[in-house]
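Milestone M4 deliverable, item 7.
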Amino acid sequence: MSQYTPPIRDMQFVLHEMLNAEATFKSIPAFEEIDADTVNQIIEEGGKFCAEVLQPLNVVGDSEGCTLNKADHSLKTPTGFKEAYQQFVEAGWASLSCDPNYGGQGLPVTVNQAFYEMMNSANQAWTMYPGLTHGAYDCLHEHGSQEQKDLYLPKLTSGEWTGTMCLTEPHCGTDLGMLRSKAEPQADGSYKITGAKIFISSGEHDMAENIIHLVLARLPDAPVGTKGISLFLVPKFIPNADGSLGARNPIFCGAIEHKMGIHGNATCQMNLDGATGWLIGQPHRGLAAMFVMMNAARLGVGMQSLGLTEVAYQNAVVYAKDRIQSRSLTGPKASDKPADPIIVHPDVRKMLLTTRAYAEGGRALCMWTALELDKELNHPDEAVRKEASDMVALATPIVKAFITDNAWEATSHCMQVYGGHGYIAEWGMEQYVRDSRINMIYEGTNTIQSLDLLGRKVLGDGGAKLMKFGKMVRALCESEANNPAMKEFIEPLADLGDKVSKLTMEIGGKAMQNPDEVGAAAVDYLRVVGHLFYAYFFAKAAKIALEKQASGDKFYTAKLHTARFYFQKMLPETAMLIRKARAGSSSLMEMEADLF
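Output delivered:
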C-alpha cells in the first residue's frame, strides 16, 4: 500500500522564498494580518488531516467504489468517506478561503490551493466532493442574487451542503451550444427544468444533507447556440426560507458511470423531470456565469494532477531505494547485498527526476497562479487587479493541460520504476495512473485548453498577455546576466523566450490565411509555453539555491540538482515541439476522410 508525506518544506520554499507571498498578502487589506507563520501552521495541520484521514481511504474508495440504489435513487459512498467529510466540515477546512460575510475564514486562495494539493495527493476521488462545492460557491458568490447568496452561501461555505455543475448531455460534450435541457418559467418566478445530464461528478452521495446543482438549460425564447444558454440553481431538496430542508426536488441520479479510475467519486447520469430551479444571473448569459466555476475547476484539475505526481514520486523513490536488482554499471554500490538498489541505474533516476521536476515545477506554477488570483480578486489597486487577471487568464489553460499531461507521463514512469509490481493493485501505483487519466479529459479536454491558449489568450489579444509574462522572463535574465553561476539557467531561458515570440508570430501569420494552422499547432504550442513557465520558475529556484547552498541545508542542494536536470534533460523537448508546430496543417488536413 502506498504512503504519503505532505511536501511541507517545498511548499514553504515556493510560498516564502520564491514568491514572497507574505509581501503580497500585506499589500491586500483583507490579508494584511496573514504572515508566513500563519500560513505554515495551516498547511502543517492540513497535511496531518490529509495524511492521517484521507490517504488511508484512497485504496478503499478505489476498491469499493460507489453504490446506487435505483429504487430510491440514493447513493452510498465508500466506507469512511462520509465520516472523513464530517471531520473536514467540523474542523472548518471547507471555509478556508470563503467570504467572512457568509461564515468563511477569509484566507487567501493561495493557502486553500496548498491544502487542496495535499488533499489530491491523499485522495483525489474524495477531494472532488468539496472541490466542486467550492466552484459552485464561487459562481454563486459572483453571479447569484442577494437572496440566493443569503440562503445558499452559508451552507456551501460550511460544507453542510455540497455543489455540482451540470453541463454535459448525452449528445454533446464540449459543444454546449447543442444542449437540449429546457427551462419553463413559472408564475412564482421559478422554472421547471427538464433534461438529462451525464458525467456529473459528485451528482449524488450520502456525505451531506443537500446538494446544490448548477444546471445549464434553455429558456423557451432562447436563441440557438451558446448565446441561448441560461444557468439555474437546482437543489436536491428545496430549502425553506430559514435554510431547513423542504420538498425533494425531482432531480435524480439514474445511473453511475463505471470508470477507469476515481472510483470513489460518484460520476452520475442526472435526470431532471420538471425540477424546480431559479435563474442565476441574466437570461441567455449562463455560460459566462458558469465559466467562473469552470475556470476554478480547471485550476483545480491541474492541482489534482500535481497531487498525483507528488504522491507517485514519493512512493517510487522509497521503492527504488529499497528494491535491489542488478549491479551498477560502474561497479557494486551495495557490496554487502547480492545486488544494488535500483536507484543506482541511470534510467531509473531519469524517471524519478522527471517526476520530481514535474511536481516542483507544477507546484511553483500553481502557487504563483493562485497568488495572482488573490491579487485579481482582492487588491485595492485596479491596475494591479487587471495585470493579475491577465496572468491568471494566460496561466489557466497551462495549469490545466500542461500539468495533467505531465502527470500522465509521471505516474506511468513511477509505475515503471516498480517493474511488474507496479502493475499489481496492492502497491497502489496503477491506481495513480488510472486516476490521472481523467484529468486530461474533463473541464475541457487538453486540446480545448490548447486552442484556448493559442487562439483566445495569445492571438486573441495580439499577444499582449504573453508579452507581459515575457517581460518577467526578460527581467530575470537581465538581472542575472553578469552572474556566471546562473549562466546555465539564464541562457536557455532567454533563448526559449525569443523562440516563443518568433513561433507565435509565425503561427499568427499562417492563421490569417488558414485557421486550421491554429488547430494543428495548438497542442505543441501549449507545451512549449508550459516549458517557458517552468524554466522561469526553475531559474528563480536555482538562483535561491545557489545563494543558500553554503548553509549546508541539503534541500537547496537537491533543488539545484533538480533545476539542472530540468534544463539539461527536459527543456530540450521544446526543440522538437517547435519543429512540429511549424510543420503546419497540410499533412493533417489534406487526407480525405474516407481514406482513414
